[in-house]
């Protein structure tokens, strides 16, 4: 027993020296390896961004550079389906806005390695869609530098639209990175306005000896109605928010032309509303014509019935659309 204790006391200095050496050694190689890996990832992302403002990624690249740690940069990912066979017109429109935003960031003076723009196409990364339980495209997500994405890190495309300015505002909220959107010059509006002015000016010149048509009440009424139909159908909202024309479900291929929420709409929906309002107005005009004209009674009766049919049917259709968007609205007429 004494010999065992003696051996222990003999080994004490050796153990002390061993622990002292451990304390004096530099930090473990694991930390250094982590730093080297992070540096390699940042350098690779910067190299890709120098070639293209939006970095294309497949499943392996996504898992390595977006999902896997270490990472000290934020990543904006657009999940989309751009291949022609997918027939996703909304994806192409959203991609154009996304490219404008990414180029604005890439060529701005504030550009840094703290934020990168990437894209995952369904045909190049179907496993990523499955991993994230994603069943619609396009979808924009923010992957923060630390932690997992939260609910607010998914862009509300259906409610806000996909305009570059709206995306930039969302990114500023999630990353504190301010991006000023620079759009390439578009002269189509100016050219169209110049052509319209030239056309009107030429028409007035040709009819300079007979300008009575300017005082035509019917013509001005039709022009006023066109403006009213455009404004009441939501064309200005479309111009500001830039919503998609329609939505196609990638799972079953079903196309939706009416948005299910009262906070948003599709472009096709505004066209439908415009036509319904025009049909109802035509019905009211026919009813007024039947009541005020002094023609044949039988003809006036037919005009009255046609006008009444237009008002009743198309107003019922309009009310059913209103009911489908404002859930819980209790009233309906003919069409539910």
Automatic annotation (TrEMBL):
Asked whether the keyword Magnesium is assigned, the reply is yes
Membrane topology note: Multi-pass membrane protein
Its GO CC terms are: oligosaccharyltransferase complex
Q: Which interval of the chain is the signal sequence?
A: 1-30
Q: Does the keyword Cytoplasm apply?
A: no
- Membrane-spanning regions, if any? 187-206, 218-237, 272-290, 302-322
Recorded hits in Gene3D superfamilies, A to Z, give: Glutaredoxin
Pathway it belongs to?
Protein modification; protein glycosylation
Any GO BP: protein N-linked glycosylation via asparagine
Compartmental location: Endoplasmic reticulum membrane
Q: Which InterPro entries match?
A: OligosaccharylTrfase_OST3/OST6, Thioredoxin-like_sf
Q: Which UniProt keywords apply?
A: Disulfide bond, Endoplasmic reticulum, Magnesium, Membrane, Signal, Transmembrane, Transmembrane helix, Transport
Top-level taxonomic group: Eukaryota
Query: What PANTHER family does UniProt report for this protein, alphabetically?
Result: DOLICHYL-DIPHOSPHOOLIGOSACCHARIDE--PROTEIN GLYCOSYLTRANSFERASE-RELATED, TUMOR SUPPRESSOR CANDIDATE 3
The family line of this record is: Belongs to the OST3/OST6 family.
Q: What is this protein called?
A: Tumor suppressor candidate 3 isoform X1
């Amino acid at each position: 027993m004494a010999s065992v204790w003696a051996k222990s006391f003999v080994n004490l200095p050796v153990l002390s020296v061993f622990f002292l050496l451990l304390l004096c050694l530099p930090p473990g190689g694991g930390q250094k390896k982590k730093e080297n890996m992070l540096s390699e990832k940042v350098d690779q992302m910067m190299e890709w961004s120098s070639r293209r403002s939006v970095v294309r990624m497949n499943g392996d690249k996504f898992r390595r550079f977006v999902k896997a740690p270490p990472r000290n940069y934020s990543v904006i990912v657009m999940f989309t389906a751009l291949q022609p066979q997918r027939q996703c017109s909304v994806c192409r429109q959203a991609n154009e806005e996304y490219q404008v935003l990414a180029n604005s960031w890439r060529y701005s003076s504030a550009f840094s390695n703290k934020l990168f723009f990437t894209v995952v196409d369904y045909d190049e990364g179907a496993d990523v869609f499955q991993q994230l339980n994603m069943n619609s495209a396009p979808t924009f997500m923010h992957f923060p530098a630390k932690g997992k994405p939260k609910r607010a890190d998914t862009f509300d495309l259906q409610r806000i639209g996909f305009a570059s300015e709206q995306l930039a505002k969302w990114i500023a909220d999630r990353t504190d990175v301010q991006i000023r959107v620079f759009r390439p010059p578009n002269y189509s509006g100016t050219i169209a306005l110049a052509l319209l002015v030239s056309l009107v000016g030429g028409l007035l010149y040709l009819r300079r000896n007979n300008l009575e048509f300017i005082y035509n009440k019917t013509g001005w009424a039709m022009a006023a109605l066109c403006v009213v139909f455009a404004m009441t159908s939501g064309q200005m909202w479309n111009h500001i928010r830039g919503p998609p024309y329609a939505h196609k479900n990638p799972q079953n291929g079903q196309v939706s032309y009416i948005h299910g929420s009262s906070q948003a709409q599709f472009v096709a929906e505004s066209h439908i509303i415009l036509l319904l309002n025009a049909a109802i107005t035509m019905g009211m005009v026919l009813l007024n014509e039947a009541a005020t004209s002094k023609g044949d009674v039988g003809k006036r009766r037919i005009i009255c019935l046609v006008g009444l049919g237009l008002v009743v049917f198309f107003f019922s259709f309009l009310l059913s659309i209103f009911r489908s968007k404002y859930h819980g609205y209790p009233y309906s007429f003919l069409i539910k």
